[in-house]
Write a structure and sequence with these properties.
Blueprint (H helix, E strand, L loop, with lengths): L3 H12 L3 H7 L15 H8 L7 E5 L3 H7 L4 E6 L2 H10 L5 E5 L3 H5 L9 E6 L4 H11 E10 L8 H12 L3 E8 L6 E8 L25 H11 L2
Parallel strand pairs: 1-2, 1-4, 2-3, 4-5
Antiparallel strand pairs: 5-7, 6-7
Helix pairs in contact: 7-8
């Protein structure tokens, strides 16, 4: 019923992206079972190429993204507002570089970013009160850093997101929108990055961009030709 080329496409999503597993098991992981954020795949691939070993991360909203960042960064501070989930993450996400904090009351939540009186290289706005958190994030962003606003496509139906995006745009940050599929969903969404004008994170690799998942040019010449020939049948 389906062409060989289309079946190869499905196989890539199953094996390289593990999206079938993420949907069926409701868990954000890559093909090797490592935790990944609930961002769009294009955003995850873009972010994964940088070296964060000397970077401090602050995250509104805890989850598998917290472990993703903890495996890469110098330190991660993650704020959770749901006590049930906070207890769950405390038990499951033990990592020496990850500090999970429960903050639930109104302004206490967004102002948690100021508790340690420091600036952060990467700030993720992916929890509640996103407009207020975006305003706080701008004040706490380190020079050359970036802010990540997930689910930014909700700007079309939510005034909260209208205000959040406006706060980040008014801070003169460079907005880059990554549209596409994401773990656990069978539909697309958008993850937006807001980069400082002097953003210049170092890549982990000799070249940038690197070959992404399922990329034809990531194969050797022989395998690339074989793959191309098979999918043209």
């Amino acid at each position: 019923m389906y062409s060989e080329k289309f079946l190869k496409f499905i196989e890539m999503w199953q094996k390289d992206f593990a999206i079938e597993r993420t949907i069926d098991e409701k868990i954000c992981v890559d093909k090797d079972g490592n935790p990944i954020p609930w961002y769009t795949y294009p955003a995850i691939e873009y972010l994964s190429q940088f070296d964060y070993r000397d970077k401090e991360i602050f995250e509104y909203g805890c989850g598998n993204s917290s472990m993703f960042w903890a495996e890469r960064a110098q330190k991660v501070t993650s704020i959770e507002d749901n006590l049930k989930w906070f207890d769950k993450w405390q038990q499951e996400f033990f990592h020496p570089k990850l500090d999970i904090r429960w903050r639930d009351e109104g302004e206490i939540y967004e102002n948690a970013i100021f508790e340690d009186n420091k600036k952060y290289d990467v700030i993720i706005v992916d929890g509640k009160r996103r407009a207020e958190c975006a305003l706080a994030a701008v004040k706490a962003l380190a020079q050359g850093g970036m802010i990540i606003l997930d689910d930014s496509d909700r700007i079309n139906t939510s005034q909260e997101y209208v205000k959040a995006v406006a706060a980040l745009q008014q801070a003169d940050l460079i907005q880059i929108d990554f549209y596409g599929f994401c773990p656990m969903n069978n539909y697309t969404k958008t993850t937006s990055l807001f980069l400082s004008r002097d953003f210049r994170f170092e890549s982990q690799y000799k070249v940038q961009p690197i070959n992404g998942l399922g990329n034809l040019w990531g194969m050797g010449r022989k395998h690339r030709k074989e793959f191309y020939r098979k999918t043209q049948l």
